[in-house]
Specification:
The protein has about 290 residues and is of the alpha/beta class. It is built from 10 helices and 9 strands.
Length: about 290
């Protein structure tokens, strides 16, 4: 199909970009073309539709073409834009971290339900913080809370700290590069975690945007997908304050196995919360009365 607008115009670039993306089986090709071109032109995607015959400067047209070529290699759109929205907040992303996903907002909802007093001076911990999206989203809802995010990758911890500054939360959030909770001795009201939970053998079969571009260390849960949960469960009894809660993200069908690990560690499953697809995505845990801590 020929593009109706003259070459070098907004309409032509959107048409041509959409054609290329469609041919590569990219879902929503026209929408993605609009996102990429609006990013290059520093405008809203809907603004592009107002004047499809507007000329695009050559350097910006070339930059758009470069982004389309990267997308044809299945590089995630969030990496091309440099950000992803989560909980109505904008988070910078990089190949050092997983891209925040809407499913993970289920954990934020579970945390809000567990602690209905939004003025509570909660102390929070986020294990495997990545972009910091979980911790910072929850902190945005509790103005008197403070939090600490840990990530094994120093680049991820640095990115999360930058996101805290950009969101005006740096005064209440700190980030460290650490192996789970090994260096910590304090106790917390709320522990959050979206750990690696994908079975190692299945990672190559994931969609190429994930398997080829997101960090394997943040995906790989070992042979059974449960390695990270075992490490986290070992620390939770000493990390949770009396009345505290841990909210963990689950992979599809992992609820029973993770609940069994929690029970072995002296933890009780308080609730399971499904995501919008009906999959149990958030597990809420508490320490059993009398558990070590």
């Amino acid at each position: 199909m020929d593009c109706a607008e003259p070459a070098g115009t907004v309409g032509f670039l959107l048409c041509r970009g959409g054609q290329l993306l469609r041919a590569a089986a990219i879902e929503g090709p026209r929408m993605e073309a609009r996102l990429l071109l609006s990013h290059v032109l520093d405008c809203r995607a809907e603004d592009l539709l107002r004047d499809p015959r507007a000329a695009v400067p050559l350097d910006q047209a070339q930059r758009f073409a470069g982004l389309v070529q990267r997308r044809l290699r299945h590089e995630p759109v969030a990496f091309l834009l440099g950000w992803q929205e989560f909980w109505s907040l904008r988070f910078a992303v990089s190949p050092a971290t997983l891209i925040p996903r809407a499913d993970s907002e289920t954990l934020v909802e579970a945390a809000l339900e567990a602690f209905p007093d939004r003025q509570a001076p909660l102390r929070m911990l986020d294990l495997g913080t990545g972009t910091g999206c979980l911790l910072l989203a929850v902190l945005s809802e509790y103005p008197n809370a403070t939090g600490l995010g840990l990530d094994l990758n120093p680049a991820a911890a640095a990115l999360a700290a930058g996101n805290a500054r950009a969101l005006g939360l740096a005064g209440r959030a700190g980030f460290l590069a650490a192996d789970w909770a090994a260096p910590l001795a304090g106790r917390f009201d709320l522990v959050l975690s979206n750990p690696p939970y994908i079975e190692a053998a299945t990672i190559p079969g994931l969609m190429p945007e994930v398997a080829g571009h997101e960090p394997r260390a943040a995906l790989d849960g070992g042979a059974d997908g449960l390695v990270a949960y075992r490490a986290i469960m070992a620390d939770l009894p000493r990390l949770l304050r009396p009345g505290g809660r841990a909210v963990l993200e689950l992979g599809a069908g992992q609820g029973p196995a993770v609940a069994a690990l929690a029970c072995q560690a002296g933890l009780e499953t308080v609730a399971l919360r499904p995501d919008l697809g009906g999959i149990d995505r958030a597990m809420v845990l508490s320490a059993l009365t009398g558990a070590a801590g």
